[in-house]
Design a protein that fits this description.
By secondary structure, this protein is mainly α. 70% of the residues lie in helices and 10% in strands. Strand 1 and strand 2 form a beta hairpin.
């Protein structure tokens, strides 16, 4: 009976050794840098670095666009204020019913980006 138990115990030890050998080879292949999981991890790490750089670049462009948009909004608000002031001064002009009608001239000034028009008598 002891002989049978020793044989079974030896066979189990040999099977466990073979199983460990197979696992060791699979783990080595799994971690191989060129073809295994190590290579995939290296590629993914490089892609993460590239995406981080692209994200930083996009963030910088978005910040610059936001600053530009704020500047344009401020300019538009100032122009709207000037237009409101011009409209308010038009309401202060006397009615032209009893006086001779005056012909308005349009003076054009060339600006840097836009042409501005101004009315003069």
């Amino acid at each position: 009976m002891e002989l049978i138990a020793d044989i079974l115990l030896g066979a189990g030890a040999i099977a466990a050794g073979a199983y460990c050998l197979v696992l060791s080879r699979r783990l080595t292949a799994f971690n191989r840098l060129e073809t295994g999981m190590g290579g995939a991890i290296a590629v993914l790490s490089a892609q993460v670095d590239d995406m981080t750089k692209a994200l930083d670049s996009a963030r910088g462009a978005a910040n610059e666009s936001a600053r530009s948009l704020c500047d344009m909004t401020d300019r538009a608000e100032r122009a709207a204020g000037r237009l409101e002031l011009m409209l308010a001064t038009l309401h202060d002009l006397p009615e032209g019913g009893d006086a001779a009608p005056r012909r308005m001239r349009i003076l054009r000034r060339r600006g840097r980006l836009h042409q501005h028009m101004e009315a003069a008598e």
